[in-house]
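Researcher: Re-running this chain for the archive, since the previous output was lost when a drive failed. Same request as before.
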Amino acid sequence: KPHRPSRMEKEKAMERQVLSCADALITNTPVMKDNFVRLNPGLDLEKRMVVIPNGFDPEDFEDIKPENKQNSRFTLTYTGALYGRRKPDKILEAIGNLVSSGQVQKDKILIRFIGSYKPDVLKNLIDKNGLKGSVELFGYMDHKECLKYMTGSDAMLLIEGGGPGSEAFYTGKVFEYIQTSNPILAVIPEKGAAADIIRKTKTGIVCDWADVKAIEKGFAALYTSWLQGENNIIPDKAEIARFDRKTLTGNLAELLNNICKNPV
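Model: Regenerated structure tokens:
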């Protein structure tokens, strides 16, 4: 529900005061920075604002030893919450279409949801799309245990719905997914910040969240690669390394040093 106009006006004025007075500004994604620069002409934000994104901790996976996966079914795993615009409707519809058309064998796929969601809603979607027996539902679990499920999968499922402002954000889980070394099927705004990261790191296939045909194509490509024992997703390790939190902390330290040396 939108806030009162008076509150929005006050918050906009407070935001502009911060943007005007700060020696430096940090934003989370390039899209957010572009929006700030575009919506605030005359404040010289292009020079004073830097992007320091979320990242990953390599230590999280130190004790998780990826084994040679011998899954009898192509296993696609989603972790996290499902709520609001983050819905599995389109991905389950797409997979259901592939199964009903014979492009994908139902007994050769397994989609896992781990986290927080409304079980009844999800079960209805599973039944509606003819996927009973091909989907497993788990609640929240210990993080280390969850990481084992992730690394033991054949691919990761990322879901983000569209809508006003959605292109500027991404969920931090994208970086954890990248660390699994599994290809990512990203059902997200195709021109958003998360899509940019996946394309730059070459870690998956981006399918616009509202385009069922594109999702079908993306899932089928990963499924076919698995059937053939191939891996067509070759990550860019140098690009991925930029999102190591130690590197990002170094970027922050450099920014603070520059401010101290050259105060505005």
